[in-house]
Amino acid sequence: MCNRAFAESGILKSHLLTHSKEKPHACKVCSKTFARSGYLKSHLLTHSKEKAHSCEVCSKAFAHRNSLKSHLLTHSKEKSHICEICGKAFSIRVNLLVHLRVHTKEKPYSCDVCSKAYSDSGSFKRHLSIHS
């Protein structure tokens, strides 16, 4: 499919999931699914109370070092990701991508219980708590 080669069959099998979009590893807490067990293991830290990486500027804590690295950009004055529709600027590209849903009206997070839909995962997660 992509001409990549792997020394171990297990790694090849795992890689093939990226082509099939199959995500057989599900989080028992939030039901999010992952192609690789390592991704699920890493994700589980987000549900843990353990947050070993703290911001030196505002003391906000994160489970993953990369989350802290992204967060540190929010303290930067540099906002190089600019919305072409309204001009709003963001220091983190993902925040711009989420913002664009304001203009497109896209709501990719849908509740299985009541079918209410949300444009961002944070609002969706808050909503889910009303059903539990």
Automatic annotation (TrEMBL):
GO terms for cellular component: nucleus. The keyword Zinc-finger applies. Residues 1-24, 25-52, 53-80, 81-108, 109-132 form the C2H2-type domain. GO terms for molecular function: DNA-binding transcription factor activity, RNA polymerase II-specific; RNA polymerase II cis-regulatory region sequence-specific DNA binding; zinc ion binding. PROSITE patterns: ZINC_FINGER_C2H2_1, ZINC_FINGER_C2H2_2. InterPro entries: Znf_C2H2_sf (IPR036236), Znf_C2H2_type (IPR013087). It is found in: Nucleus. It comes from the Eukaryota. Keywords: DNA-binding, Metal-binding, Nucleus, Repeat, Transcription, Transcription regulation, Zinc, Zinc-finger. Pfam families: zf-C2H2. Gene3D superfamilies: Classic Zinc Finger. SUPFAM superfamilies: beta-beta-alpha zinc fingers. Belongs to the krueppel C2H2-type zinc-finger protein family. This is Zinc finger protein 431.
